[in-house]
């Protein structure tokens, strides 16, 4: 599963989930956003008309047509349906269902939801499809605000997980969540937005925006995220609320800045997928590493299992960092060690900085130059002045000292 491997164990079910029979309490969180993306859609179909099928088995017919097998979820599927094959990395293939087979009944013109079926797809070669792909009759759309916002891939994956989550399946969900999906959120505005010449809603000056929170039975608060409007309207109190389109990065910013929140809950009135704050931090790191080739994060002593010296000191990385530090008068010393956290071993750079106002700028320069030397590991940068920094540097030799 690449960069999103071994995430599943970090987000096991907790008491903070939102059971369907439990009532929801509404809280509000202030936002400083100044632009608005209205995600209110024009619905093309009722919820019951859409379906998904996660590919669990792949075969090739005698004519080398692709046959994909799995459990049909959502609605009925019919021969000659036009469908989309949603793949990893936001890839979409268009096809048509030519034949539907059921292991007990045989060929079917129409298959009911919940049925195990194998569908023969037109215009796709067997090598173009992989297990974990989602077949759906719903047009994917996470960008065009003039049409209904839909996330059929993550919706299909979550539907499959509801029947039995596996490590591989959950990692596919988290990857889609962090890399591709965009979600609808309800919001409350102090002033009605103005519509510009392009038909887009814009905040009036002085407008404040509040994003409602949901409170779990255990008392933890979560930002709700909805894959589509059919999911949002299940929240009766928010059916008429204004909506905004948010990405994973938007939710990361809100969750990490708000100490009162514990994370995100996706589709709380159906699939009910809770993503805790610690997992969100981890997904953020993985995404940064995948997209930028690097990541930085500040740690406390309780975050690390232990800190050790590397068996083979990364000389080239240390030389690259030294060149940066030699130009910075605020840096006195630096240590480069290894930190084990949650079974993962990554680099830990401890920097002695006399002027904390320069910290962010210096950290960014360091992060840029170490990229070629990470080899898939994470780089964690902390200041020596923190309690953790002093402990981590204790009994270790600094590789850089200002002369």
Written overview of the protein:
It is a single chain. This protein is an alpha+beta fold and 403 residues long. Helix content is 21%, strand content 31%. The chain has helices at 152-163, 167-179, 229-232, 248-257, 277-292, 315-325, 359-370, 387-393, and strands at 25-31, 52-54, 57-60, 66-73, 77-78, 82-86, 92-102, 106-108, 110-111, 116-121, 134-136, 182-189, 194-195, 201-202, 209-215, 221-225, 242-247, 261-266, 273-276, 306-308, 331-341, 344-353, 379-383, 400-401. The strands form five sheets. Strands 1, 12, 15, 16, 17, 18 and 19 form a seven-stranded mixed sheet that branches. A hairpin with a 5-residue loop joins strand 6 (82-86) and strand 7. Helix 1 (152-163) packs antiparallel against helix 2 and helix 6 runs antiparallel to helix 7 (359-370). The protein is globular and about 80 Å long. The model is unreliable at 1-15, 19-37 and 41-45 (pLDDT under 50).
Blueprint of the fold:
Blueprint (H helix, E strand, L loop, with lengths): L24 E7 L20 E3 L2 E4 L5 E8 L3 E2 L3 E5 L5 E11 L3 E3 L1 E2 L4 E6 L12 E3 L15 H12 L3 H13 L2 E8 L4 E2 L5 E2 L6 E7 L5 E5 L3 H4 L9 E6 H10 L3 E6 L6 E4 H16 L13 E3 L6 H11 L5 E11 L2 E10 L5 H12 L8 E5 L3 H7 L6 E2 L2
Parallel strand pairs: 16-18, 22-23
Antiparallel strand pairs: 1-15, 2-4, 2-11, 3-4, 4-10, 5-9, 6-7, 6-11, 7-8, 7-10, 12-15, 12-17, 13-14, 15-16, 18-19, 20-21, 21-22, 21-24
Helix pairs in contact: 1-2, 4-5, 6-7
